[in-house]
């Protein structure tokens, strides 16, 4: 078997396994965060969580597929490791950037919701507060 094909197979196995592991971890632990962001609406948190996971899979697996091609052939075992380290490293960076982007956006939504809750007065302006 050609060494380039071996590198492709290993790259796909490692990249897909990493994508699945990260997606499951984010889904499991992100649900609690989403529930807080969405003010305890569990059904909506589950739906948003599922949509985020589907989008995560689509973007990452699409990137893995697009990044599969290589310009040169791999001549030796060292070349396999060099190609794999570059490709898997880039996939890991993309996974990390996507994760940080998701957390940033959700945190902004959570902060905005907290600020809106603080702006509501505890009683209507025409009512009296008991002493």
TrEMBL record:
Source superkingdom: Bacteria
Transmembrane segments: 6-26, 47-68, 88-107
Keywords: Membrane, Transmembrane, Transmembrane helix
Protein name: Uncharacterized protein
Provenance organism: Streptomyces luteolifulvus
């Amino acid at each position: 078997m050609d060494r380039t094909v071996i590198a492709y197979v290993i790259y796909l196995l490692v990249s897909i396994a990493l994508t699945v592991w990260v997606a499951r971890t984010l889904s499991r632990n992100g649900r609690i965060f989403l529930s807080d962001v969405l003010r305890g609406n569990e059904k909506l948190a589950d739906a948003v969580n599922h949509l985020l996971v589907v989008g995560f899979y689509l973007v990452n697996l699409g990137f893995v597929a697009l990044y599969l091609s290589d310009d040169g052939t791999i001549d030796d075992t060292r070349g396999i490791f060099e190609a794999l380290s570059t490709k898997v490293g880039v996939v890991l960076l993309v996974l990390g950037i996507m994760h940080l982007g998701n957390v940033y956006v959700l945190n902004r939504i959570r902060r905005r919701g907290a600020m809106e809750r603080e702006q509501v007065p505890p009683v209507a302006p025409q009512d009296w507060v008991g002493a």
